Fold this sequence. Notes:
Blueprint: H1 6-46, E1 58-60, E2 65-67, E3 71-81, E4 83-84, E5 89-90, E6 95-106, E7 112-113, E8 117-118, E9 121-122, E10 133-136, E11 142-147, E12 157-158, E13 164-173, E14 182-194, E15 200-214
Parallel strand pairs: 1-15, 9-15
Antiparallel strand pairs: 2-3, 3-6, 4-5, 6-13, 7-12, 8-9, 10-14, 11-13, 14-15
Amino acid sequence: MIEVRGPLRRVRGGAVHGIRSAISRRAIPAWITIGVLALGSAALISAGAFATARHVPADVAIGEEVRTPTYAVTVLDVEVTDAVEEQFLEADPGETLLLVTMRLENLSDATIGVGTTSDRISSRLVGTTTPLLELSGVSDQRGTRAWHDITSAAAPLLQPGVPAEVTVAWRVDSSDLDSGIALEVHEAEVHTGQIILSSDVVTWAQGEQVARIGLEVRG
């Protein structure tokens, strides 16, 4: 084995030290940059800059209008009853009929039905598994029926731009009446698809909840 001694060893050691110093000097700016970026990211995260924005539905009182791009709704009156004789509607044991009278306005350019399909438009306002107008604070919402006036048998239609007073009846458990029932209002996501014979059909799917109307129901 050859051992390096004296000046040659010192020269070699100095060269290695110089290379290490040069590498360290070149590396310092990169480390500084990484450190600054890390500190900046931590500050943004702590401030919630990268948090997903969460929409909070507005709390709306009875008598106030909620307006969406496709329809507007104003709750006018709330009532609980065991039967609506004119509609041949009666609650089952343990149930109550929750009647919500509202002013609805169709803001689209075609006729829509409140609980039915009209002009190839399925508005899904009520009476579906994912309606635009749905109850919260109940264990179940079933058997929905809507009418213009108490003696009308036909499902109500809404003409474009013509506000109409409509009553919607929900079957709810009697035990739910003291739980703070509210009407949740959703925007409509309008989808166009094809059905038999290539006819266009428009579906208003349940979109983002925009408002919550407290119904102030008490048993």
